[in-house]
Design a protein that fits this description.
Elements (H helix, E strand, L loop, with lengths): L9 E8 L15 H22 L27 E7 L2 E7 L4 E5 L3 H9 L1 H6 L4 H9 L3 H21 L13 H9 L17 E7 L4 E6 L5 E3 L10 E6 L3
């Protein structure tokens, strides 16, 4: 008989920044996007290896699937653990979950954030749902709201990839009900909307400050989020389950 007090599935997270010398080009030449991408990919897999060690599993760095081959996988990582990884700017976030987790981070540099602010109306128009576009424009901080919506699209897409059922593209996901709930949390409003790409309710955790926006999504209604490698804490807000995806 299953326990009525079963522990929620665990998610081990780690976040780190590239050092000033990581990916630096010789003789002061600009760092290429390819070089920087390779360095962030390696740092992410180093974090995954360290997280696996926290669980007592030896997952050698060289054993992770290569960059560009979909979600990171390792033959020595036992079930039910699955890996998730995202990077933006100089920040890399990695996770190991007892259930599949969609994960995305947005951490723009100050100059990139300024460019986004100047182009914000055009960025909002790329989003497919009128309800989401309206909620962002009505927000007290539309750029921050856009980042929450964008990372949620990405996280939902990555969750589909882990289930080998990816949407046709990132913006094919539907997030209107979750965005409505996120926008209304501070006002204490309880909203229920209907949108159905997932067979089971989707649950979302988001964290945001001046430096980053981080979205997690899972089909599990509870997660025990841990950061065993230390570093700065991330205050997550949970968005109640919805049929959005």
């Amino acid at each position: 008989m299953s326990s009525l007090c079963a522990e929620p599935p665990r998610l081990l997270l780690a976040i780190a920044a590239l050092s000033a010398n990581d990916g630096a080009a010789p003789q002061g030449r600009p760092t290429s996007a390819i070089t920087r991408g390779a360095e962030t990919s390696r740092l992410g897999r180093e974090l995954l290896t360290r997280l696996a060690a926290q669980l007592g599993h030896r997952c050698a760095l060289e054993g992770w699937s290569p960059r560009g081959a979909g979600p990171p996988r390792h033959t020595d990582l036992p079930c039910p653990w699955t890996a998730c990884l995202s990077h933006s700017g100089s920040l890399v976030v990695a996770g190991l979950g007892e259930v599949p987790i969609g994960l995305d981070i947005e951490a723009p540099s100050p100059s990139r954030k300024q460019r986004h602010q100047r182009r914000l109306e055009g960025l909002i128009e790329t989003l497919p749902e009128a309800e989401v576009r309206h909620a962002i424009r009505a927000s007290s901080d539309p750029l921050a709201a856009f980042y929450r919506a964008w990372t949620l699209h990405e996280a939902c897409y990555k969750l589909g990839c882990l289930a080998d059922q990816p949407p046709d593209h990132v913006l094919a996901t539907r997030i209107a009900s979750l965005v409505a709930m996120s926008m209304s949390m501070s006002a204490g409003i309880d909203l229920e909307r209907d949108s159905r790409p997932f067979e089971r309710p989707l649950n979302v955790w988001q964290a945001q400050d001046q430096r980053l926006t981080l979205s997690l999504c899972s089909l599990s209604s509870q997660l025990a989020i841990e950061m065993p490698l230390g570093g700065r804490g991330i205050p997550f807000k949970r968005i109640r389950h919805s049929d959005a995806g």
